[in-house]
From TrEMBL:
This is Outer membrane efflux family protein. SUPFAM superfamilies: Outer membrane efflux proteins (OEP). It is found in: Cell outer membrane. It comes from Puniceispirillum marinum (strain IMCC1322). It holds the Pfam family OEP. Its main location: membrane.
Length: 453
């Protein structure tokens, strides 16, 4: 077996290992990959449960106006034996009391705390949208990386086959005395470099496959190249207006600012007067009958703080600082989104121009290569010239693959920069239930009496 055939066999074996691995695979579109990723993502599942936790905090906010009940039971039994008094004595004592309490007026704490919890839920909703968008973009990038790597592997394999034929032809010409060994060396050098590039491309494909598999949980092969997104804003001003209104980072920053502002209201409500009603019933049983007592009472209590404590002042300063911080964070979120959006807009337009240029370049290199092949036939060009021209064609084909990859990815990144790369906007709203339809977690308390399961 010659050097060329041994090397080529090794390359083919590597491609077969990469492209036909032991794991069961099937063809898939980008839509199917995204659906699998949404279902498979533990990070997204965690974000959904975080949203449920924020929703349940609305119920926690009513704690200052909830009806509470307490039961207190006390029992005592004593034995005494005294030589100086009446000798041995035994006494028993038992008491039980039930108290029901409720704030008739809690200073507005429940209402203010509920409003605060709703702002925090808005922030959690925006945070989930951000997680969902990040996952979708990550999956799109991984999917397109696999498609690009598959196409590059195919182009490198074609290039290897072409260069192998050139090496064999050079060997035949040397044996016939029509060429020198230098020509064989030139052809083998180009073949060795192409083989190295092909092996690197195969490794890149395996890496891209691993990343996509980790996101989707399934092996995908023979992926189809999706089209670039259409119906995108034509002007930067239109895109900025959309991003200001819809981007999750801006929505979260605004919700956090409203939440920080609401802290002033909750603090003010906490120091307002309260009116509470309590009903209690108690029974005491002692040795004999003189100490027995049954009692029922009701009381209304008006309570109002009249001193401002150091803790209250510190809390007020803390709330003020948090509110100022939230304003700066909102401005920073808007700035960052604007910068990313402008960059994504320019990149998308640049990739369109680059794709047109690469397409024209490929057509020109193919025309040149065909012309040089004809000139080689008539002795006007050398085989080395033909190899150079064919290599230019291969390089242009690889650049076209990258340009088509970049323009598709740029369109999705531009949509993400506007905050619109969501499951609903991509027609995937049926994959997972909406946040509002998520069930509440199991309650560890079985009923009115706080006894855990």
């Amino acid at each position: 077996m010659t050097y060329v055939s041994r090397s080529f066999a090794y390359a083919v074996a590597l491609f077969a290992t990469v492209m036909l691995g032991p794991t069961t695979t099937f063809s898939a579109t980008l839509d199917e990959a995204l659906r699998a990723s949404l279902v498979n993502s533990a990070e997204l599942a965690a974000a959904r449960q975080s949203w449920v936790s924020a929703r349940e905090q609305i119920g926690v906010s009513t704690s200052t106006s909830d009806l509470t009940g307490t039961v207190k039971i006390t029992g005592n039994q004593s034995h005494s034996d005294s030589s100086t008094t009446s000798g041995f004595k035994q006494s028993q004592y038992a008491s039980a009391a039930i108290t029901l309490s409720k704030n008739l007026y809690d200073g507005g704490q429940s209402a203010e705390n509920a409003k605060l919890a709703e702002y925090k839920l808005d922030a959690a909703t925006a945070s989930y949208s951000n997680s969902e968008q990040a996952l979708i973009l990550k999956t799109i990038e991984a999917y397109l990386d696999v498609v690009k790597a598959q196409r590059e592997v195919s182009l490198h394999a074609d290039n290897l086959a072409r260069l192998e034929s050139h090496v064999k032809a050079a060997e035949a010409r040397v044996r016939a005395g029509a060429a020198t060994p230098t020509r064989i060396a030139e052809s083998k050098a180009r073949y060795a470099r192409a083989q190295s590039d092909a092996i690197a491309a195969a490794a890149d494909l395996q890496n891209a496959d691993d990343k996509l598999h980790s996101l989707t949980g399934i092996e995908l092969r023979d992926l189809s190249l999706p089209a670039a997104l259409s119906s995108l804003p034509a002007t930067l001003i239109e895109a900025e207006n959309i991003a200001r209104a819809e981007h999750p980072n801006i929505r979260k920053a605004i919700a956090n600012e409203l939440s920080a502002s609401q802290q002033f209201n909750t603090l003010a409500a906490a120091v307002k007067p309260t009116v509470s009603l309590s009903l209690s019933a108690s029974s005491k049983d002692k040795t004999g009958t003189a100490g027995d007592l049954d009692d029922m009472s009701a009381q209304i209590v008006f309570s109002s703080p009249f001193l401002t404590t150091n803790a209250t002042r510190a809390k007020s300063r803390s709330v003020s600082a948090s509110h100022a911080q939230s304003k700066f964070a909102r401005d920073e979120a808007i700035r960052a989104v604007d910068v990313d959006l402008r960059s994504a807009f320019r990149n998308m337009n640049t990739t369109k121009i680059r794709l047109d240029a690469v397409t024209s370049e490929l057509e020109a290199t193919r025309l040149v290569a065909r012309g040089i092949v004809s000139e080689v036939t008539f002795g006007q060009k050398t085989i080395l010239d033909q190899l150079d021209a064919e290599q230019d064609v291969n390089a242009a084909e690889l650049r076209l693959v990258n340009a088509e990859h970049d323009i598709i990815l740029a369109s999705y990144r531009f949509k993400a920069a506007m905050g619109r790369l969501s499951a609903v906007n991509l027609g995937l709203g049926d994959v997972l239930p909406s946040l509002t339809n998520l069930p509440s977690p199991d309650d560890m308390f079985t009923g009115t009496i706080p006894i855990t399961k």
